[in-house]
Each structure stands twice: as C-alpha cells, then as structure tokens.
C-alpha cells in the first residue's frame, strides 16, 4: 500500500470513494462541492493524502486551509474535514495513518493548529490522536410567539448590491483582541455567495453593517440562523434600530419559529435583539489539535462565529 499526495486526475475516483464510504447524506458528494471547498478556497488549496493499493484508491484524508488573526498576528490553521475509507479497508488503522501523516506534512508548512467540530461517533478517535476538547459554543435563541402564515414576501438577497461594503469589511482592521477569521480578499464571497451547500441571505444598510443568515427547516419549525455579523465604526443607534426592524420583518414574512445566534461575541454588546432567554452552551463542540503551536490553544481568546464552524 502506498500513501501519496493526490493530483487532479484522482478526483473522479476520490468522489466515488466518498460516496461509497459516506453516502450522500445531507451534504452531496460532487466535484462542484469539492472544487469550491478544496480548490477555490481563498486560503489556498487543501492538503490531501490518499492511500492506494494495487491501483485502487482506498483511503482519502483532506484538511481545509484556514487563517485566523489576532491583531497583527497571523495564525495558519486547517480544519479537519473530508475523510473516507473504502469499506474493505476499514478497521485497519488507515484513517489514523493518513491523518497523522498529513499532520506531519503540515508541520513543514508552519501550520500551527487544526480545528474541527466532530460528531459523537468520531470524537473519541480524534482525542486519541491528540485533539483536545475546547467545549461547545454558546447559543442564544429567541422564539417568535406571534407566528403567522408565511407571506413569502422576502426575496433572495442581491449580493452584488453590497460589493463595496464587502470589500470595505475585508480591508478593515478590526480592533478586537479576540482571534477571528482572517478576512482576506474574496473570503466573504467564497464563503457565503458562491457556497453550493446553502443559500445565504443578508441584512445590511450597505454602509455600516452586514448580518448574514440562512433559513433552516427543522422539527420544531423554521429557524433563522445568524451565522456572521460585521459592524463598522459608523454603526450607531439608528443603524441598530434599522437592523432589528428588518430582522423582525423577515421573521414575520418567512414564518420563522425561532432565531438563533451562536458564537463568542455575546460579551461585546451584541446589537441584535434576542429576547430574555439565557445563553446556553449547546452549540457545536469544538476540538483543537496542535501542529506547530507551542502555547496552550485551549486558553487562547477565541472569537469564533458560527460561519467559521458550520459543518460543510
């Protein structure tokens, strides 16, 4: 058996292996999704290893490149995402071998850490390979008690109308001391506009703030899930009032049962009106793994948004 870096000609067989190993589930296995996630990513192409036996690709392990920033400090990271082992090769340690081999390669590139949000089934395997539990993101929920019939008045957001604002946000040096995603040029368009998984919409005045959300169908009704929020220096009381008025209109038009906001920005005077329910630690569980970092990752001042941690 040979472990090697993949090349573009391997992609059709990789997609077939993902389907055979994982099925389609809620996330389709397609070349379109793969190219968006692992090729078009503004942080760079994904590092990828495959295991090959007698000409057959029997294992795939890939990390998604990411960058964080804390002030002037850039933190190179990866997110552990796609992995697949052919059913005939499962239970033989191939997943662990591929994962640890890829980590060794990342050390040479100066990648400091890997993060992910594993499910209950995969969490124990990651912990055995050196991952540590950071904990669950706080989650704030607000239920709409005056739920009416959907008026379907909301239209899909015209992202082209806020091109200037997006460029302004990506060029702004935010003064937060928290560690947040490095907003490189093209990040917001890649992450939200061209994402093939979910349709994202926004609320904005086009000048001082941008709230990004998606509507999600659930067992208890429609959810308005806020995934990211950016405010610039000229965001004030009038803009805050406008933002919350527009949100209420969307909630009504879309028959939203509840609105959710998960992340680490609740201590920063969140301008979104989310009712009196307490913040609960029931969001995605985050795990971290050192690669080249020397300090304690668990004690760092993280400022994740849900957009950084959504499963995709």
TrEMBL record:
<feature type="domain" description="N-acetyltransferase">
    <location>
        <begin position="1"/>
        <end position="154"/>
    </location>
</feature>
<protein>
    <submittedName>
        <fullName>Acetyltransferase (GNAT) family protein</fullName>
    </submittedName>
</protein>
<dbReference type="GO" id="GO:0016747">
    <property type="term" value="F:acyltransferase activity, transferring groups other than amino-acyl groups"/>
</dbReference>
<dbReference type="Pfam" id="PF13527">
    <property type="entry name" value="Acetyltransf_9"/>
</dbReference>
<dbReference type="InterPro" id="IPR016181">
    <property type="entry name" value="Acyl_CoA_acyltransferase"/>
</dbReference>
<dbReference type="InterPro" id="IPR000182">
    <property type="entry name" value="GNAT_dom"/>
</dbReference>
<keyword id="KW-0808">Transferase</keyword>
């Amino acid at each position: 058996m040979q472990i090697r870096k993949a090349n573009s000609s391997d992609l059709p067989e990789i997609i077939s292996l993902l389907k055979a190993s994982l099925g389609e589930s809620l996330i389709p296995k397609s070349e379109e999704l793969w190219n968006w996630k692992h090729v078009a990513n503004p942080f760079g192409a994904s590092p990828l290893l495959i295991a090959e036996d007698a000409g057959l690709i029997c294992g795939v392990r890939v990390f998604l490149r990411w960058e964080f920033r804390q002030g002037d400090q850039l933190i190179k990271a990866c997110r552990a995402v796609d992995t697949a082992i052919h059913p005939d090769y499962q239970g033989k340690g191939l997943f662990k071998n591929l994962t640890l081999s890829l980590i060794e390669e990342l050390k040479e590139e100066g990648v400091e850490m890997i993060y992910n949000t594993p499910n209950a089934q995969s969490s124990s395997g990651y912990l055995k390979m050196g991952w540590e539990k950071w904990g669950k993101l706080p989650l704030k929920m607000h239920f709409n008690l005056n739920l009416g019939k959907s008026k379907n008045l909301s239209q899909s957001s015209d992202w082209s109308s806020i091109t200037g604002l997006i460029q302004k946000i990506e060029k702004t040096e935010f003064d937060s001391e928290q560690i947040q995603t490095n907003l490189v040029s093209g990040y917001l368009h890649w992450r939200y506009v061209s994402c093939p998984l979910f349709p994202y919409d926004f609320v904005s005045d086009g000048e001082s703030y941008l709230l990004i959300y998606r509507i999600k169908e659930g067992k208890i009704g429609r959810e308005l899930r806020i995934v990211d929020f950016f405010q610039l220096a000229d965001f004030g009381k009038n803009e805050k009032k406008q933002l919350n008025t527009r949100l209420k209109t969307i909630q009504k038009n879309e028959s939203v049962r509840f609105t959710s906001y998960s992340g680490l920005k609740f201590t920063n005077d969140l301008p979104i009106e989310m009712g009196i329910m307490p913040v609960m630690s029931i969001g995605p569980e985050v795990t971290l793994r050192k690669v080249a970092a020397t300090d304690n990752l668990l004690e760092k001042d993280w400022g994740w948004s849900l957009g950084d941690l959504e499963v995709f």
